Amino acid sequence: MTLAERIFQGIIILIIFFYFGCGTGNDKQNNQPGVMVDPAQVEKINPLMLDDLYRSVATVKSKNTAQISSKVMGYVVAINVKEGDMVKEGDALVILQSKELESRLKSAKDALAEIESNISEAEASKAEAHAQWQLAEITFQRFKELRERESVSQQEFDQAKAAFEVAKARQRKADETLASFYAKKRQAAASLDEAKTFYEYTILKAPYGGLISQKMVYEGDLASPGIPLLVLEDNQNYQLEAIVDESKSGTIRTGQEVEVNVDALGEGKIKGKVAEVIPHIDSESRTFQVKIDLPLLPQITSGMFGKAYFPMGKRTMLLVPKDALLECGELSSLLVVNQEGRVERRLVKEGREYHGKVEILSGLNPGESVVVRDVFKVKEGCLVGKKA
Is the Cβ–Cβ distance between 241 and 126 less than 8 Å? Predict the structure, then answer.
């Protein structure tokens, strides 16, 4: 048997299975005398000019997501949040313990305290040296005048002058010592500020208000710099990240309004706006990414599945109610009224859904009438409006 013969045989078997394995309803009932198709069950399907929508699968993502990680190494001693918790900016999320940083902070505090004590002593020494210098200066000036009148000896004048110079040198030394201690104090204060900053890194705080969406840490864990411990997402600003076929790359623009829906919310279609079109096309999937801003929706969170509907212009379509379709496996059919007014079952190819109706791509001609209600009660071959 040739390949063509095998394919033909398969098609015949499929058709037989379709017609005899997937009936339209209760044949026993439909074989009863007097059964007819009410014209109210039939609808004429005329072509409609509608928006051609391209549907894309998408995932909800927060516009702002922060991975909370430590800047220093330390052991986790407290976790103040769990997944799903709401936090405010500045809230303490995780507390670390680092004996090295604690020791560094204590040493910096002790060093500053010691220098401040030295400054107190140096200021007292400076005050004493200043008083001695003032007294020596007054004595020197008096002896200078007395010497000019030769009321004191040269030796006495020289002794007063020497005492003045010594007091002056002590004053200068006291000033230099105090200035040195002040310089050391500035250095110690800077070291203390640095130690405090590093110690504050042991308290991990929320950079902004939002939702804790992931927790990857437990008490007792050793936290290392750059390793994420929590994930915080801004729950006031969400986007839908849609995966779009490369053939649509020239038809979607920033600022364009699109219809979207998030299945888990069950709210039907809502309006979104294209915020960003990523021009890079994935070489394997032949797709690119489009980010769509969403309005504020209750209960929404990252990871939810959604769909985006991008307008591609208008085109003529044939739409039938979903209830008019008869499904058998992957095959779909309609009960179409033929030219003789009889119902016949016809295989059709489905397209996309539009507001509760389904587009028929092939198998149905414009203007033909279709049974759209109680299709499982209708027998093939019945006359519309007449007894079977």
Answer: no
Helical (H) or strand (E) element with 347: strand 343-354
Four-point Cα dihedral 217, 221, 227, 230, nearest 10: 20
Other beta carbons within 10 Å of 27: 10
Is the CB of residue 315 less than 8 Å from the CB of residue 348? no
What phi and psi, each to the nearest 5 degrees, are found at residue 23?
Answer: -70, 165
Q: Specify the pLDDT at position 16.
A: 45
**How high is the pLDDT of residue 366?**
94
Candidates 2.40.50.100, 3.30.70.260, 1.25.40.10, 3.40.50.720; CATH matching 65-98+202-233:
2.40.50.100
Predicted pLDDT of residue 2? 56
pLDDT, position 94: 96
**Radius of gyration for the chain, computed over Cα atoms and rounded to the nearest angstrom:** 45
Q: Which residues of the chain are modeled with pLDDT < 70? A: 1-35, 267, 386-388
pLDDT the model gives residue 88? 95
